[in-house]
């Protein structure tokens, strides 16, 4: 039974990794913006949470700009950008699903 659970989790992780590679950074940014907008509209995100998410997003955009500054994005830079995008996405999820509400 435990082995079945481990195999299921491993297959989900591999599947999500493959799917994530088909999405461009612009699409990720657009999806994150939609998620934040929906969170504000539904009241799941408070003003300080939105401010924190936007600050993290600005830092991510600055990292991307710095990586592209020399017209060549190295593997390490790309890895860091992908890692930061995932962190931002998790941050949005956590903030939307905590017990705080707007208003």
How are the elements arranged and paired?
Elements: H1 2-20, H2 25-42, H3 47-68, H4 75-96
Helix pairs in contact: 2-4, 3-4
Mean pLDDT across all amino acids: 84
Counting DSSP E segments of at least 2 residues, the number of strands comes to: 0
String of helices and strands: HHHH
Number of helices: 4
Describe the structure.
With 103 residues, the protein is mainly α. It has four helices and no strands. The chain has helices spanning 2-20, 25-42, 47-68, 75-96. Helix 2 packs parallel to helix 4 (75-96) and helix 3 runs antiparallel to helix 4. The longest helix is centred in the middle third of the chain and has 22 residues, at 47-68. The relative contact order is 0.13.
List keywords for this structure.
103 residues, mainly alpha, 4 helices, 79% helix, 0% strand
Concise structural overview:
Helix content is 79%, strand content 0%. The protein has 103 residues and is mainly alpha-helical.
